[in-house]
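quick one before i forget lol
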Amino acid sequence: MDEVIICVAPCPGDNQKERFPGKMDVPEEVRRSYDAGASLVHLHVRDEEGCQTTDTTIFQAQVKKIRAVTRLVIEGSTGGTPEHTLAQRCVSLAVPGIEMGSLNMGSVNMAGGVYQNPMSDIRHYAAEMQKNHIKPSMIVFDLSMIYTADRLKEDGLLAEPLVYNLVLDVPEALPFSPKILGFLVDQLPWDGVWFLIRHHAPGRRGFQEALEMGGHVRVGYEDGPFLHNGQRARSNAELVEEIAGAAREAGRRVVDCERAREILGISR
C-alpha cells in the first residue's frame, strides 16, 4: 500500500510529567498535529490535571473544538483505571463526534500489573460501539488477540475492514523486533488495516519496518516523546512531522482525513 494514515495520541498518561511537563492544550496540540499530517486522533477522557475521569465535560468541549478546526477522525478510548466499571470505560463512545473506539482485545501483563480485559468485557465494548455506530480500533498486545477478532466477527460485532493496532514494547509485554512484527502481520487478513504503536519508540527509526511493510503509524506523547535523535519533541506536531517525512522517504503518501475514512471503513 502506498498510502499511510498517521494517528496522533497526544495525551500523556496519568502522572507522566516526564513526557509533557505542565498542562496540555489538547485541542491546540491536535490542530497543530493535523496541520503536520495527522488524519486520526486518539483521545482519552481526562480531567484538568490529565488524569482519567468518567466526567465527559472537558472531553466534550475538546471534541467540539477539534471538530471546529479540523476534519480529523476522532477515536475515543475505552481505557480506564481498575476501579472503573464497564459503563464508565465506555463514556467516550456516547460523545457526539466520536467515529472510532479503541477495543482492547485481551488481558496482558503491563508495568507490574495486569491490564484486565476478559472476553465478556470485550464483547460488551464491541456491542456498545456497534450500538453507537462507532468503528472498533482493535488493540492487540499479543498473537492470541488477533484471533479474538475472529470470534467477534462470528458474533456479528465487527464489520470489515478490520482495523488492528499492533502494540509493542509495553513494559512486560511483547517487545518489538522486525521478526515479531512480520509474524504478527502475517496472521492478519489480507484486507486488514493495521497500525504500529510502540512504547517509547526511538522516533522515526522505530517505524521504518512498518512503513516499508505497508502499515500505518501512531505517534504522540501517550506513546513516547522522543525524536530519532533522542531529543524530546517540543510538541506532538513535531512527532507527526518526523514520521510524515519518513513516510514520504519510504515512498508512502500521507493521506488526508477523508481518504483515511475510506481506508478505515468509516461513513460520515
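fyi The mean pLDDT is 93.
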